[in-house]
Specification:
Strand order of the largest sheet: 6-8-5-9-7-10-11
Strand content: 15-25%
Distance between the termini: 40 Å
Shape: globular
Largest sheet: 7 strands, mixed
Low-confidence stretches: none
Radius of gyration: 20 Å
Number of strands: 11
Order of helices and strands: HEHEHEEEHHHEHEHEHEEE
Number of helices: 9
Oligomer: single chain
Structural class: alpha+beta
Mean pLDDT: 93
Length: about 325
């Protein structure tokens, strides 16, 4: 006889989550009651986000369960990072066709391993039967009035991006067509696949940007599209310099320079941070980055004319900033 709903919650979620709950000391009541009771830090504002991952839409059917668990939490932590928040708690709603113990064990391990690294506690949720999809709500805190937003940029502010965008999109191409990587060295292929399956939320960077960045957004739908959203929210235009895009050696080996730039601009799933800093803050940014474990590259600036442009070899051209739209097409 298979596990029932309450048995699987107990085995795969409540018991493994107990150490994190106890370590935080701010969850008087967690998994097991009708709702969780949380103690918010005094003098802090609550930041909340929620994302749903649907099989066949956000991850490929048959994806590693460990990766699905990691990604489901990572995309939410990335949202909190883009707001400059300290992540604290999360809730999970898991719909699956059957109570598959092997799937659940690996899924929970992937999710809770990432949670442990960032000190966040699973405090509740729900399970039900149906097509595989995962919804996570993450909660964090920030000092009053200090949350980063998309709308604070001003003309002349410098535009930055973390990491090497485009890698995850290349990794997805390899997932969909393994033969696409036949000419790649094993290390390059492994790098791109890991960047897709295990995005790294830039929580430390988000914290470092509080009080310095004028605007911030996480890059989930492509750098060009998300940078354009930031610029529009700030009432500005935008210029991105193609030659300054940070491209990983693995991406260049996979797609060549032109293809790598295209993936960096339009590929999604990177979960990097795109943000702006006034020119006079560049030195302070460099100082703060000394304690952050990721690279950051200045790729352009906000402008006053309202145009969204890509500059390549000195020639400006309009940016294709459509990005990903869940309701576009069929």
């Amino acid at each position: 006889m298979g596990l029932g709903e309450f048995e699987l919650i107990e085995r795969f979620f409540r018991i493994p989550a107990e150490d994190a709950r106890m370590a935080r000391g701010d969850v008087p009541l967690g998994i097991g009651d009708d709702a969780a009771v949380l103690t918010a830090p005094p003098g802090r504002q609550l930041v909340a986000t929620l994302d749903t991952l649907v099989e066949g839409r956000h991850f490929v059917r048959g994806s590693p369960p460990h990766s699905i668990g990691h990604r489901a939490l990572a995309v939410n932590l990335s949202d909190l990072a883009a707001m400059g928040a300290d992540p604290a708690w999360y809730l999970l709603s898991l719909t699956m066709p059957a109570a598959d113990e092997e799937f659940l064990g690996r899924f929970a391990q992937g999710m809770m391993s990432l949670a442990s690294r960032h000190g966040v506690a699973l405090v509740g949720g729900n399970t039900t039967r149906g097509p595989l999809n995962v919804a996570v709500q993450a909660l964090g805190t920030v000092a009053p009035g200090m949350a980063l937003t998309r709308s604070g940029g001003r003309a002349g502010d410098l535009l930055y991006v973390s990491g090497t965008p485009g890698d995850a999109a290349a990794g997805l191409k390899l997932v969909l067509d393994a033969a696409a990587g036949d000419a790649l060295a094993e290390a390059a292929g492994s790098w791109l696949l890991r960047r897709f399956h295990y995005p790294e939320p830039r929580v430390e960077l988000g914290r470092a940007l509080v009080g310095l960045a004028s605007a911030c957004i996480d890059v989930s739908d492509g750098l060009a599209g998300d940078a354009t959203r930031l610029a529009r929210a700030s009432g500005c235009g935008l210029v991105i310099d193609a030659e300054r895009l940070p491209l990983s050696p693995a991406l260049l080996a996979f797609a060549g320079e032109s293809g790598a730039r295209r993936l960096a601009l339009t590929g999604g799933e990177d979960y990097e941070l795109c943000f702006t800093v006034p020119p006079h803050g560049a030195a302070e940014l460099a100082a703060r980055l000394e304690s952050v474990k990721c690279t950051v590259t200045c790729v352009g600036e906000l402008t006053a004319d309202g145009n969204m442009l890509l500059r390549e070899q000195g020639r400006p051209m309009p940016i294709d900033a459509s990005g990903h739209d869940h309701f576009a097409g069929n």
